[in-house]
Amino acid sequence: MGNGVRVLLVEDDHLLATFLEYKLVKSGYQVEYAADGETALSRLQAEAYDVLLMDLMLPRMNGFQVVHELLDDPEHLPSVWMAISARSSDEDILRAFELGAADFITKPFSLEIMLARLKVALRCKVAANGALGPRVGSEEGLAVAPAEERPRFSALKARHVGKV
After folding, report:
1. Which pLDDT score is estimated for 137?
2. Beta strands 103-106 and 6-10: pairing type?
3. Treating both helix axes as pointing N-terminal to C-terminal, what angle do 63-71 and 37-46 enclose, rounded to 10 degrees?
4. How far is CA 102 from CA 15, 26, 59, 78, 135, in A?
5. Is residue 1 domain-resident?
6. What 3-state DSSP class applies to 44?
7. pLDDT digits (tens, 9 = 90+) for 17-72
8. What is the rounded distance in angstroms from the CA atom of residue 57 to the CA atom of residue 149?
9. What is the tally of structural domains in the chain?
10. What is the pTM of this model?
């Protein structure tokens, strides 16, 4: 399913990040890793990614702060972002969805279920937009374009200014 989809994995638990990265790469995703929010934001502003898979409780800048910064500069927000967290309050989950999260995965979780949810999020994005971008790509009909050519969530910023 991954076939060319670039993922930025942001997780401060190195062991969990290693398992996630292994599983994502084995499934065909191109994965880069950041261990804290500031590094993640810097990478997102420097390079284009299709998917942001991010823990919310991070050192130096939490996941909500990262997304808030990206909403101020939406061309750097990946087409799909998914929250991962041990926090499971309705408030946290709803806040993530209000900020455009495609899904909220509560720790602990099954790696297989996380992969299935990622596939569904990508399919939904493709169904909504016709593709992640203009270059047609892979198996299962997922159209894939270089992340820098993909539409971003510019409308999200307008809807969420002042809500974070």
Report:
1. 35
2. unpaired
3. 30
4. 24, 22, 23, 11, 22
5. no
6. helix
7. 999 999 999 999 999 999 999 999 999 999 999 999 999 999 999 999 999 999 98
8. 30
9. 1
10. 0.79
